[in-house]
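Here is one chain, start to finish.
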Amino acid sequence: MASPDLHSLGYISRAQGLNGSVRLNTEYPEILPGIKGKTVYLTKGDKQFSFLLQAIRPHDKESVVLSLKSCESREMAESLIGFTLSVGKTELPVGTGKQFFVHELEGMKVEDAKLGLIGTIEAVYPSPAHPVAALNYQGTEILLPLAQHFLLSIDRPNKVLRMDLPDGLLEVYLNPSAEE
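Its structure:
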């Protein structure tokens, strides 16, 4: 099991080529260039190995090909299939301005321009258009679209995400049977 100080980035789905490269299925391809040259951890059950991430290249929408130092044969790469790849949380890149990496948002407070404090982000889910944040508002789980045009600012030191939510969005969750 991964340490709480590690952030999971995906899992090794297959060996790629003959030289020891592996394919990583991930929801976070944008993070990987920021950790090139850093130590990554592969975990499966009670087994954990560390490797230096040497190279990254895109494969498709859901996967990238990684070269790990000391993983030099297809046989070794095949032995890593099914392992979860993680990185130390302190090694994760941080966005600037309104640009963010999904891992930064969990635990941030959400403040709406009109309603004030809404709640704390409990989870962030990928979606084709933009990530979606899950939080509890007035005892109900709501999903907020993290589209750039709703974001006003991100106060990283105070962990506050300021948004201008569309009118009626929260009411959809609070009054699901109300008809207009």
